[in-house]
Structures are given as structure tokens and as C-alpha cells.
Amino acid sequence: MSNPPLELVLDAKATLGEGPCWDQRSGLLYWVDIKENAVHAYDPHQGTNRTVHLDQMVGAAVARESGGLVLALQHGFHLLDMTTEQLTFLADPEKELPDNRFNDGKCDAAGRFWAGTLSFEEKEPVAALYCLETDGTVRQALDGVIVSNGLGWSPDGRTMYYIDSMTRKVSAFDFEVETGRLSGRRTVVTIPEGGGFPDGMAVDEEGMLWVAQWDGWQVSRWNPSTGEQIGAIRVPAARVTSCAFGGPNNDELYITTARTGISEESLAGQPLAGGLFRVKPGVAGLPTYRYGG
Q: What's the pTM?
């Protein structure tokens, strides 16, 4: 693929920008700043960015079929009414693990919300991946996770892709759309040494994976059938956190970045770190699904 121009759409200077999620119905891009306890709604038509401040860290925000958002917060799943900005608690499957918090999350085609956790130490496999069913129940889908991160599904919905960042790998599972059950875990992508850590992820309509590389200065494109890297979008920030397709034709890739943990000296060399970027990579993404509960 050619090298399309990268556009800075919001010089947000986010501490830990994450979780971009396009909502086709409203034409808004929801994204979060985890360490600033903030949910953002970027309106590309107006060029505005609304911020809702919460009382705890927020790992992911996705649109809800019946209105508002469902969030994976530091302390479990919540609903957010975007009119009143009020939270409604749903469940906290890790209330006995105060040193863990929720991180990245995404909905599947059946409207389930998948989100995983990490420990603040990010060293031991004491975290997990959870599934919030549309009836509001929560089940653990995977355990033994260190840093739960990017999620995605193949165009036919029969394969789920998943990142535990500290492994530097993207795993694939056979996925039952009807039940949400996982099986047959295998590695399909390995980030090479010097490429940082895989973070958030998106899947395009050709079934290729777009992986944000924390400390890798890029979003890379991979063929999960061969494990081969087939493209990259260079980003003027080391800590590239996530990406999501959006726009009227779903052919714009939004990219979030972070400033956290970077020295003032290093930030001087990457002043746009923490910004929200957009690029038209030449391929469209798969639809973004809403939570069905």
C-alpha cells in the first residue's frame, strides 16, 4: 500500500488516549483518556470534542443499541447516559482484585461487549478477558492474562483476534457467533524485537489486522493467514495505543496516542504525542457493533 497522509485531527495531549470507537448512527468517534478518567466524543463534522469526566479510570467505551454508552471502568461495567452524564453500575467481576483495572474492549456482531483487565504492575498473569452478555450477565472467557488489549473479528465472524500485550503476539480463536464461545487458540502475528508492544487493533474488510504498536511509532498491517507484515502507518508519537475505522464510508482509520511515562526531554521530540490522528489507508474497515443490552 502507498503511504497516505496522516492528519492530526485533535491535538489533545491525552495522557493515555485509547479505545477509539466509531458510531455510525451519530457520526461520532468515542475515545477515552484512561488516566484522566475521561470519555470523549469527537464530532468530525463540527470539529468538536465533548468530554465527560468520571470518578475512576475508563478502559473502553462503546455505543449501546438503546442509547448511551456501556463502559469498562476501573471497577467494572457501567452504563453512561450521555444526556445526564450519570453512571449506572452493572457488574464488577474483579471486585476482589483491587490492583487490577479494566482496559480495552469491543462488541461482537451479536452485541456482546468483550473487555479485559490488567494489573497495575503489568507483570503477572493475574488478569482476564470477560464477556458482558446482552442480558447483563458477565462471564470470564480467558484467564492468565497480563495486559488484556486489542480485540477484533474476521469478516465472517468465525475468528476472534486477541492481544495480551506483554506476549508481543496476536492470538486467534475459533469463535462461535451464536454462543460467544472460544476454542483453538493459536498465534497468528508476532511483533518483532524493537517494535514495542501490540496494543489496540482493528480489522479491515479484507480480513487484515491493523495493530497499534506501543513504543513502536506506528500502526502496522498484518496478514493473519501468513503472519506477514504487509504495511505500516508511521505516527509522530512513540506510544501508539489503538486504532478504529470510521467515517461515512468506514474508510478512515482513527489512531490514538499517549504521553504517559515519557520524559519531558523525549516529549520535546514528539510534541504531538497524545494526539488523535486520522488517515485514509486505502481500504475500509468492518462495521463497529453496538452493545445489545
A: 0.97
